[in-house]
Amino acid sequence: MAMTITAKETLKNLFSKMVNVVYIPTANLASPASETGTCIEFPILEESATYKEGEVTTTKVKLTDGQLWDVIPKTGDDDMGFQIGTINDTILSLFHTKMDAVSASAFNGFTYSGNGYKTDSKILTGGLFLTNEDKTAAIWMPSIKAYGSVVLENNKPAYINVKYDALNSTASGAGAIYYLTGSVTPVT
Question: Which class for 40: exposed (0-12), middle (13-18), buried (19 or more C-beta within 10 A)?
Answer without folding.
Answer: middle
